[in-house]
Amino acid sequence: MPDLSINFAGIKSPNPFWLASAPPTNSGYQVMKAFDAGWGGAVWKTLGVPVVNVSSRYGGVNYRDKRLIGFNNIELISDRPLSDNLREIEEVKKRFPQHAVIASLMVQSRQEWHDIVRASQDAGADGLELNFGCPHGMCERGMGSAVGQEPNVLRTIVEWVMEVATVPVIVKLTPNISDITEPALAARQGGANAISLINTIQSIVGVDLDQFSPYPIVDGQGTNGGYCGPAVKPIALNMVKNCAQHPGVQLPISGIGGIENWRDAVEHILLGASSVQVCTAAMHFGFGIIREMTSGLEQYMREKGFQTIQDMVGRALPNVKHWEELNLHYKVTASINEQKCIGCQLCYTACEDGAHQAIRLNEGTRVPEIIDENCVGCNLCSLVCPVEECITMERRDDGSRHETWQQRTVAGNIPTEFEDERAGGRHHWVPEPAAALGKEKHKTLPGKARQFEPVPTSPPVVRE
Amino acid sequence: MAEYSPPTSEQEFQANFAQLKPRMNRTEAMLESSRCLFCFDAPCIQACPSGIDIPQFIRQINTGNVTGAARTIYEANYFGNACGKVCPTEVLCEGACVYNLQDVKPIEIGRLQSFATRAQMDSGEALFGPGAPTGRRVAVVGAGPAGISCACELRALGHEVDVFEAKAQPSGLTVYGVAPYKITNEETLAEMAYLQGQFGYSVYYHAPIASRADVEKLEASYDAVFLGIGLGSTSTLGLPGEDSAGCVGAVEFIEQLRQQHHAIAVGRRVVVLGGGNTAMDAASESARMGAEHVTLAYRRSKADMGAYDFEYDLAKGVGVEGLFNVAPVEITGNGKVEGVRFVRTATTGGQVQPVPGSEFVVPCDMVIKATGQSKQTTFLGLIDGLQLDAKGRIILDSRTGQTTNPRYFAAGDAGNGGAEVVNATAEAKVAARGIHEYLMSQDLSS
């Protein structure tokens, strides 16, 4: 039986799943309900000087019939009095001593930081998370991401906090910066015990086509918000990896961004996170999703033979390389399983229009054919294919040769001139440009109605 | 015990004949349209006789451009809503959907199509209008799917069109012949009104063109004539007792049913003769009208039936019993149907032969003959130079719809011998283009 419990920079919890600092952790009621449901920890909705919020606070990105593949908010930190939050933190800790309760904090002056750190600790918080990430509303007041974007300021505030902190301190980073490792290093230098990332990404999730206003709409107007949800996971994974691989950072990482199920969590963990935080998925589906997450994680660990979470942390990192370290001799090409193919021909049109014209159609069958010599092994066809395991990428090289761009550079064997013979596409076949004209027009224009010209509604305009 | 009680009110009738393809709501349309793969050179388009760009209209529904979806549909097929509901989609677009090859439910194309067209019809906003007047006049005989489609297309091309219809309502078999669980009279007529409102052709009802004098009048007043006359009444079988009370033709029975609903009654025990889709409809309808026992009798085997499998399944689903390899030899009873005497048959070398001494009687109080409709050869004989093939179908150029009399064009059942609404509407569009080509090449002053 795998052990899901973690010790994250000294903060213990029965499993790695924490609720992120956000609306689901706004009150003791919600946090108790979450713990009751099986969550391992909760980062309380950020404490500070209580705010005033607007009405209409969230916007969503839907894909076809799928709701909220992306989500943004323009809500601020807690709007409840500090004493109410602290009293409830104390109550939760009494009832759930084994669970992790982390106080998220955001204030301005050194004195305020000292006061709120002490108050949180007195309330029984197991750890503190410094909110240097909020990208809307608070940053304009010199807090949140305004701090996360200024490593020197960030370090100074961490130092203030560390002057009085008696529990582990996590610094929450903003992704609204070109190099995430700079604030991560500053957190380390300031003495923080851990980092968490990513906070939300500055965004406009959509524009109302009738009101000409961005979502969410507040009295006919809107503002940029913070983007999160499944769509941001790829950005989060890359930033978690950057921090995990940086030799100067060397801090436990709490992974945040697009985590909705056990697979997402494992991906964060394999790239270096040792706890994970969830918000959007809980806001969308409620706390009940935790049952699938723990069960999936446990099953995965059992199958892979991992005893503890720590066994898995960063397991993918050795395989995350810079581009110039990849093997240029590795060669795959696409293979279509004719038995599985349903003849949608999406692979054909994708390769034809979006890649390398390496798929052809033959008379008498709807199953397309790969033109091996044109296939560059880009994966596009296998990605658009709607049938599981129908198009697979098969290895064609014998695995005996390994040469990277780096090695070729050292060996002086890289293209250096515009007409260089060593260019990768030098001898790739491409069709003549004019061969595109009229090709398959009968297949890409409207059905049999295509045999008719559209009915003219007015005489053609003749230009002088 | 029959599953259905005889309906005594419009409400009960509608319950017995609940729509097989009910209208989708927006959520359902969003979910269903999201499943479309947007195939390249999509098989559904190829399977549609009217060539509607199906992936395009589904994508338009999915992006909230329902008006655009309706335009895509109507551009290819003026009976867009009717076809969404009455087409045998199981063997056309939906049957061609690639999901079938994956054992996944195909996209409900018919219902999505009607979702878009109904929304457009309800909005009342025109998508099309008549073209610039050409001064040419065309007479359209028959206001069925072929006639109305031809009229729409001709008006779009700027020709004046008068439609002559023998009956009281437009759309032909869509309102007089299709099973009531496939489409309602209201939505059929709403689509007809929507089309006429946009294109502005005239329709004369109760105006049969039947005599040589009628034909000459048309020829004198119009530059071309389109024949969308469909088929005639049910052919007689020549059986003893065929004229007994309670022995009716399927086409006539269904017409009554569509027009009078619960005001008509079926027998307690009904025998339907035939193995085509009309036979399946008549059998299903008898059962839904509360007949206690419905027997479907066909002279060949079940596998030989012309009906689509799903149509037979529909009939079986409402309790209809199949009786195969039997041929009727007599309608028994004294002026009033009491039964059908059958002889068993054997099919050898494609020929159906009676098995001597195998006669038996199936008692019943109603017989519905669904054994094919006659061709309107007598009427067609009134037109100079109009040639028919051996089966009584009008010979025409499939590219233009032109008959062997150059001023006459035709499409639909009268030319193809009896097919779907979608075939008629598609062929009529082609014929309208043929008429246009013909008219514009003629010197008007002559």
UniProtKB/TrEMBL annotation, chain A:
Top-level class of the enzyme under EC nomenclature: oxidoreductase
GO function term, MF aspect, one: dihydropyrimidine dehydrogenase (NAD+) activity
**Region named Disordered:** 421-464
* InterPro entries (UniProt xref): 4Fe4S_Fe-S-bd, 4Fe4S_Fe_S_CS, Aldolase_TIM, Dihydroorotate_DH_cat
Q: Is the keyword Membrane assigned to this protein?
A: no
**Pfam families per UniProt:** DHO_dh (PF01180), Fer4_21 (PF14697)
Residues of the 4Fe-4S ferredoxin-type domain: 332-361, 366-396
Query: Which EC numbers characterise this protein's activity in its record?
Result: 1.3.1.1
Please give the function described in this protein's UniProt entry. Involved in pyrimidine base degradation. Catalyzes physiologically the reduction of uracil to 5,6-dihydrouracil (DHU) by using NADH as a specific cosubstrate. It also catalyzes the reverse reaction and the reduction of thymine to 5,6-dihydrothymine (DHT).
Q: How does it assemble?
A: Heterotetramer of 2 PreA and 2 PreT subunits.
The protein in question is named dihydrouracil dehydrogenase (NAD(+))
Instruction: Tell me what organism the protein belongs to.
Output: Hymenobacter duratus
- What is the gene called? preA
TrEMBL record, chain B:
Instruction: Spell out the Pfam families in the cross-references.
Output: Fer4_20, Pyr_redox_2
Name all 4Fe-4S ferredoxin-type domain ranges. 27-60
SUPFAM superfamilies membership: alpha-helical ferredoxin, Nucleotide-binding domain
Quote the protein name from its UniProt record.
Answer: FAD-dependent oxidoreductase
Say which species the protein is native to. Answer: Hymenobacter duratus
